[in-house]
């Protein structure tokens, strides 16, 4: 009985390990396919859309507060 349970547990662990290896390989392939230009453009868009307006608002607040 114990040998059967041990064998069953080992088989389940092998199956889990196989699935994890497959998931890791898929994830690595996704990261490899993403080109550098995409990362550059994404960073540029984030900087323009988010950081730029926040900086403009802070500078405007600083100008208003220093004018008083």
Q: What would you note in describing this structure?
A:
This protein is an all-alpha fold and 68 residues long. It has two domains: 1-33; 35-68. Helix content is 94%, strand content 0%. The protein contains two helices and no strands. The chain has helices spanning 2-33, 36-67.
What's the short version?
The protein has 68 residues and is mainly alpha-helical. The protein has helices at 2-33, 36-67.
Task: Describe how the helices and strands are arranged.
Elements: H1 2-33, H2 36-67
Segments where pLDDT lies below 50 for 5+ residues?
Answer: none
What's the main sheet like?
none
Radius of gyration: 27 Å
Q: What gross morphology would you assign?
A: elongated
Counted up, domains total: 2
Oligomer: single chain
Mean pLDDT equals 84
- Computed structural class: mainly alpha
**Percent of residues in beta strands?**
under 5%
N/C terminus separation = 85 Å
Keywords:
68 residues, mainly alpha, 94% helix
């Amino acid at each position: 009985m114990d040998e059967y349970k041990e064998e069953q547990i080992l088989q389940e662990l092998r199956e889990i390990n196989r699935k994890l290896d497959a998931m890791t390989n898929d994830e690595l392939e996704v990261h490899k396919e993403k080109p550098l230009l995409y990362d550059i453009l994404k960073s540029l868009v984030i900087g323009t859309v988010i950081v730029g307006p926040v900086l403009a608002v802070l500078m405007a607040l600083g100008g208003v507060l220093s004018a008083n």
